[in-house]
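Write out this protein's structure.
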Amino acid sequence: MNELKRVLILLIFMGAVTELQSQESPHMILLNGKIVTVDDFFSIQQAVAIQGERIAAVGSDETIQSLAGPETLIVDLEGRTVIPGLIDNHNHVIRATEYWPNEARLDGISSRVEALAQLEAKASELSDGEWLMSLGGWTENQFSGDKSDFTLKELDEIASNRPVFIQSTYDHAFGNTAWFDQMGITLQAGFAERSSATGLASYVVRDENGMATGRLNGGMPMVVSAIEHFPVVTAERQKEAISETFTYLNSIGLTTVYDPAGAGIKDDSYARIEALLVESGLTVRVFYTLSPLTFEERLAQDAVQKIIDEIDGKKPFQGNHELDMIAIGESYYSPFHRDSLFTPTNPTTADLEAGRRILSAAAQGGWSVQTHSSRPETIDILLDVIETVNMDFPLRQLRWSITHADMVGREQIERMRHLGMNLQMRSISVLHQPRRGVLIEQMGEDGYRVPPLRMIQESGLPWGLGTDGTKAAQINPFITLWWAVTGLALNGELVLNETLSREEALIAHTRSNAYLMFQEGNIGSIRPGLLADILVLDRDYLTVTENEIKDIKPVATIVGGKVAWGSL
């Protein structure tokens, strides 16, 4: 570190200490650690003082210990590494909360045997008759070795006394006999019955004898149809589920999520989270998007005007640093911008005009916008419209983002820089989905550049890392960090050669994401004045072998100066 940097850090620290000494003593001091601050200099310190919900000072053991008062809790970290709480810029948390107590999460599991064991363990925790679920975030392709389907027989052996529904991302699912019985689907059907099947029955995969194998195909339509038959969740049960979900997120190192909502998710879906905030506070900060209209409303002739009316009728940033609606997204008008890795959108002239009207309303209302777009053709279409909006309403201060952006190119990044936009990248390829293999087959070596993290990092464009969990992808941020550094999928195969350094990846999952959420003055770093969202780790992120990064776990997760998970 050069001398100028040393002087600047010292001046900042002395100012923080002077301010603290005029106030009350910190309630907690963490000493004898490796404090990875992720500040502007990526400085490493020994100790941190916390007063109330914010960080009071950071520095050497001697200096920080001198700030202690008679009531200060002093914790010896015994050399453990401390990093800022991790921030996920794309986590569908509201979708996770309803059925979380019934879920066996298969995030990060790299073998079929381990997955079955996880399902069996969860089944043993449930009461008789309660559904056993695993709602996305995994795929058989993440398993090394055996990638075969879960069978009806296996799922019956795991849980014969309850319905079992196991969903692999949004692609397919598996059920047991009890689930088929509850759906009224015949296990062994004759040819006539099979050929005339409708609804869920039409998605059932059968063998040559008409026997259900346990698998259901059909992608998203099948998933939507299955959800219609899920058990009803009471308000009280969902409040419990929110707490359980947040506890799990704390256990894997998440302290803040940006929820991009999605089709059918309304802003009032967060009322129960708000009620929990009022009653007991939150252990995960939630910043979310307005996702206008239900599926049915979007089909109406006046859908665009309804979207604009909803945008005009609400204002962003009406919450606080625990819970707030800050943007519009991610799928506000799908015909205009919604695509996949293999299918670009093909908007009509009317769709483009609808997109322009919606985005103009958002800009005029001071809204940030987060837009789902993956392919270069779709990104270009989106940027064409955004550029026209920018002529009337300068957008730089609104921090609009493109999320997913898996195939973004250099020219598009430059266009985004000119507009003051951001990128929100996801780690979905860590699952090594079948479509990833198709992508590499079609693109050759260029397939290993999707998403182009190295190019994005070197461009200087503001960007951050997220997961697209909990249904589409896994949600463990340390798996995302490992993928960004190694370029590997969970099964050990190379899927990405546009990798990052450990420091770059950590910044993208903390400080950069805080900026995307307009929260850089509150979270994302360990420095005086910011909220004390801190992880004490079981091993050193900066020095463990690359392969160990995915296995790192917090010993303690501190949110707003309080231990939310684990112990010190």
